[in-house]
């Protein structure tokens, strides 16, 4: 463990606060210095104990704090150096054995090693292990992408789950999630088509196309739904146009307009909307004239 910048800021702020309170309460600066010395001593004692127990990262954080509070103490500086050595040695020994499940923890350890000794060969070994873990995760993401494209969404999700806590380090994860999301939507569209829900199928496939997804299967499904819709509506419209009544013609105009709005591929396949609208207006005008003559 290594204190963050926020921890260091908090430590320095608390030290300043103690000095201010000492002045306000009439205490001497010597008392404040004594308090800092006690805090440094406690950190040193705890750090040495952690080092004895093999907890190198914990020891380093505590001994760095002690050395920071008492920078003129050779004993504290030496203890900090010992902790640095322990961290580097332990990390280098473990480096060949780490796996991807350790990625986040290892990233923190690597950050500590490069901070304390950026040129040390042991730090280089730790960084090399981190790079290996990163490549392993990238291969895992590539495999998940292949599974998603093959339709194994559950398998893809299982592979990606351990990586999500490190998503910021792997931009490709977003691309796979996008792939999974649209394939799930496409599965809904296929199900809707099989169940005869042509509107839902067309809504989903059209939204995917509008999003820039021009996958062959998506386009094929959209075309199939369009063909089914035309086959379903066309006989009804023929009957309505044949009747010639204002109500039937009005229904036909409305139906053609709505179908073409929701199904771009259906445009022009259900008849000439302009001519049909003109015929409807003519019939409406004729009915109004007849109505006026009878009143």
Count of DSSP H/I helices: 12
Query: Separation of termini?
Result: 95 Å
Shape: rod-shaped
Count of distinct strands: 0
Described by strand count, sense and barrel closure, the largest sheet is: none
Summarize the entry for a quick read.
The protein is an all-alpha fold and 295 residues long. It has twelve helices and no strands. The radius of gyration is 37 Å and the shape is rod-shaped.
Give a structural overview.
The structure is a single chain. With 295 residues, the chain is an all-alpha fold. The chain has 12 helices and no strands. It has helices at residues 5-24, 29-52, 56-69, 74-94, 103-116, 121-149, 153-160, 172-194, 198-210, 216-243, 246-262, 273-294. Helix 1 packs antiparallel against helix 2, helix 2 packs antiparallel against helix 3 and helix 2 runs parallel beside helix 4.
Q: Key terms for this structure?
A:
disordered N terminus; 0% strand; 12 helices; mainly alpha; 79% helix; 295 residues
Layout: helices, strands, pairs:
Elements lengths: L4 H20 L4 H24 L3 H14 L4 H21 L8 H14 L4 H29 L3 H8 L11 H23 L3 H13 L5 H28 L2 H17 L10 H22 L1
